[in-house]
Each structure stands twice: as structure tokens, then as C-alpha cells.
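Let us work through a complete example step by step.
Step 1: write down the sequence.
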Amino acid sequence: MTARTATRISFDIDGRGLSYVDFGGTGRTVIALHGHMSDGESFADLAARLSAGWRLVALDQRGHGHSDRAADYTRDGYLADILALLDHLGLERAVLLGHSLGGINAYQFAARRPERVAAIIDIDAPAALGLDGHNPLGFVAGLPYEAATREQLIEAMGPMATHFGALVRERADGSWSLPFHPLDIVASEDLVHGDHWSDWLAGTCPALLIRAAHGVIPADMAEAMRDRRPGTRMVELDTDHFVYANDPAGFAVAVNEFLSSL
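Step 2: predict the structure and record it as C-alpha cells.
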């Protein structure tokens, strides 16, 4: 484990605040992009295990964590935020690492702004998803978003407090809320669905695909993603979709080995 000092920083983009955690480190920068209903702090364990010579910066993507809600959750919106972060940090290029939603954002940004991306690490994010029209996150639409007290918010969650109760946060005014708006999550999930093969295949930078054996990418799709895109290697870990949380050691080894090859 490497001792790093994490610093939370916010900046403005078109009147909307974006927040990120700079976990420190010197050398080249890895930009980490979380999945739905998470935030940049989910990469704290990776930061501690990251090889020397690398700096980790983890964005709270729009509508998540400490970043403000946005007017929309389109593909272009998410990608604009990545560009804004790179410009804010003064980085010409960086490695993009993304889980789930963040993985799709990473490879789409690499396809459209290749001059800004040195490599990508895709953590269990498929090249196509949701083509059947089903939204697996639709169940969160009924979650309460805010309340005057923590107890009131937890009570309003009912049985779902078991899963989401630990996430509630106190605001500056003393009220409490989730670190995401449930309806934003449902909209964002709808808008990330689609056939994204053209973006995956358009990328030319080195890529690592980390597939969870019990995750969301079918084995045949993962093999095609590796074989059809030049410069792509794949590592499969025997865990579920939340790779970074449920196999942190294996995840860090895969990331560090790939970074050492760049």
C-alpha cells in the first residue's frame, strides 16, 4: 500500500460545480470515472495500491457525489465534463479508467478526442447494452431524495434503506439527501443504453478490458471486444460487476501491470 494524501477540489463549468478527488502521486495521471450511484471516493483503495509514478484523480461525475446535478445526462454531456476536467488540470493527455457508466464514457471520449487520451482501462463496461429496452436501475425511481433529518430520510426509504441508508449525507443547511437524485439515475441509465461498437472500435490507444466473470459483459462480447480492437488486452477476474470493491487486490494488479506496459 502507498500512503497518499487525498484532496477534494471543485471547479465551475457553465455555472455548475464539478468535484473531484486528487489522491496524489507524481508522474503521469490516471483519470478515474465511477459508475452509476457511486463517486470518486470509490477508488480510494486503488489509489493506495497504485504503483509509484502515477497520480490518480477521480471525478464525481455529473449528478453524483459532490458534483452538482445537470440539466441532462446525455453522452455528449458526460464527455464534455471529462474534457473540462482535463483542461482544468492542465493535462494534454491522460489515461482514462472507468467502471460501468464510467467505462463507456472513457472509451467514447477516447474515440472522439484521441489526442487527449494515452490509454483506457474499461472495467466491465460492454460495447452494447440495454438493447432490450429494460432499465435495470428503474427500481430506484421510488427512492426519496431528501428530508429534514437523517432519520426521516432513512424511514422514507423503507426496505431499501438496507442498501442506500449508508449513502445519505448532511447538507450545509442541515438537511439530508442521497448523493444522487433517483430520477437522474434512471434518465442517465436510459441514455447510456445503445450499440456503442463504433466508439469501441474507433479507439486506437492501448486498452485494457477488465471483465468480471459474474458481471455484465457476456463472454463472447468480451472476446470480440478484445479481438476486434487492435492494442486491446483482457483480464478476467472471478468476481461480480463491482470489481474494484469485491476483488480490490486482483483489480489493482491488473491495472498496475497494464500501466507498467505503457
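Step 3: interpret the result. The chain is about 35% helix and 25% strand.
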